Amino acid sequence: MTATPHIAEAQPPAFPHRHLLAIEGLSAAEITRVLDLADNYVEQNRQPNKKGDLLRGRTIVNLFFENSTRTRTSFELAAKRMGADVINMSVASSSVKKGETLIDTAMTLNAMHLDVLVVRHPESGAPKLLSEKVNCAVINAGDGQHEHPTQGLLDALTIRRRVGRLQGLTVTICGDILHSRVARSNIHLLNIMGAHVRVVAPPTLLPSAIERLGVEVHHSMKTGLADADIVMMLRLQSERMQGQYVPSIREYFHFFGLDYEKLKVAKPHALIMHPGPMNRGVEIDSEVADDINRSVILDQVELGVAVRMACLDLLTAQRRSEAAR
Amino acid sequence: MTRRTAYVNARLLDPASGLDARGGLLVEGSKIADFGPGLFNGGVPPDVEVVDLNGQCLAPGLVDMRVSVGEPGEEHKETILTASKAAAAGGVTAMVALPNTEPVIDDVAGLEFIARRAREVKLVKVFAYAAVTQGLKGSELTEIGLLAEAGAVAFTDGIQAVADPLTMRRALSYAKTFDRLIIQHPEEPRLASGVMNAGEIATRLGLSGITAAAEVIMIERDLRLVELTGGRLHIAHVSTAMGVDVIRQAKKRGIKVTCDTAPAYFALTEMDVGDYRTFAKVSPPLRTEMDRRAIVQGLADGTIDAIASDHIPQDQDSKRVPFAQAAFGIIGLETLLPLTLELMHKGEISLMRALACLTCQPAGILGLPLGRLAKGAAADLVVFDPDRLWKIDVDAFLSKSKNSPFDGRPATGIATRTVVDGRTVFWRGM
What was the ipTM of the complex prediction? Predict the structure, then answer.
């Protein structure tokens, strides 16, 4: 069982943040703390009895303004395995569509004495806005094109468990960087942890001044994937493939879709990652996606639960130690 | 008998003539009767009210060419009464209302409504622009001639650009008949669909960016249309270094064009968006430090002719939302003078240049007989203490909306008395 990270009075807390809104702003030590704790939860999740009671009596709300089966399920499972009570609220069934503002929603939820609010929202910065209005911890489960910090952490854990480290690795992120919060969280995290980060995309799918985030920019898979240790593919949404950002799926796959041919220039055992859901035949060839020796896509899903348990643990540590006193 | 007021011990400042001297000014009724260094050397006549300014500055009242007054249609954000109070508190004696209202000011009835409300409120002078295109839809021209006769001081689609080049060409051409100015919001809308300046900060925040090119492309296009039509163009709120540069070159080539900027563009940068501060969301967006410096340079060298408050009130519900959904705009009437004086205190521009951008220059661009100290001119005056230290406190502002990113900013210099047509409409204690 996991040891609760109890906080000694004199020592600064290992994770001195009330909320988890972004990777940007975290230190290497704080990220390492999350990943170490998540390693413990991986073990718990592989036991026949997966349920702990660290968060017994705690209330966690998953507030999703965007559909997401996998992230919501992952957070729900994480909370339930720690013994918390979980409520899922999705936008279709909430009053947001009736004109209630984000702030009203926050104040309403706040009155229900939550411990953690997990928020996904189509607008960048929405979780930050909510965090200013509520007393509970807020976890950003993806906001617009800003960040998806738990995805960044679970990707880091996946790499660390497979390769043993993050420091010094060359990680290539390919695809729709412009619209990707996953890319931003990963770029920040990998830079903080000392990896070399490259991005590969046509310029129409790159945000301006992306190089200022500390990445090497490539427009060709051949140079971008050369000697890469890790290849992260991003999802390209179908409405962006019809001539707006790229001329066609066929053309996109030809130049930027990952297949064995393009992968040849990467390191021989380079790992393939994808945050899901995949568009097979658009950004990734099915054979590559299903290659059990290379693809760690299902590891990512498994480790996602553990990482979210670690985040819930750390963000409730303060309250739990206060309650214990 | 006509009421007479003597302002004594004043530092008289008139940017139009370059006058900067200690002296006095006599108001008779609604007009300036006389002024000058030695005016009251022989003493003030007995039947005259005396206002001792103790060395404070006395200048023409500010002429603000860009104000959203909230009426008609958005009275929960601002009204002509609250905007007038805010103007008076800011030393603004004349303001021009934007036509982006509900309904749009695109007919004579709309202009008459503004004029009537201004008469009822009777604090500062309120002028109005009329829309260039009907309903601000960007296609059909408004009745420019009739609207000009009814008092529209110029024509603009206000917070949005006249995007269609053919419509803009015809507007510039047709307005020439009545010697009227077209004021353009310089932004190519297809390139300006974002919510803040494009660049590293927008990328970090995951917000869609507006490239500086969106501004300069529209400015360049319109300058070509001015050359083609001989129309009169004024470019509103220039925000980019490229924009300033293109206008500077155009003026050198002899093209008749004027432009203004707003304090946000010389007092703030995109960094002020910080962690999604919606009060720093403004159109055009706050730009880089390099752009900010170019705006200051443009003000110093005369490329930029005027400073307008670009007063766009927004209520809490419009701003307390995720950044991309928040409305654009900053209130500016009560910070126009102190933020402009900030440039003077930093040594970027002279006091006279600063005042010119706030008084005679905007008045001249709009053809209004305001913004100067002259015998027989309307006694529209501002008294200000250029050195008074204070802290900008939005809660103390008279504007109905409080959307200012300048709240808490230390300021130097403040209006202490505002006079419109000889009547003191605002007075601030020491």
Answer: 0.91
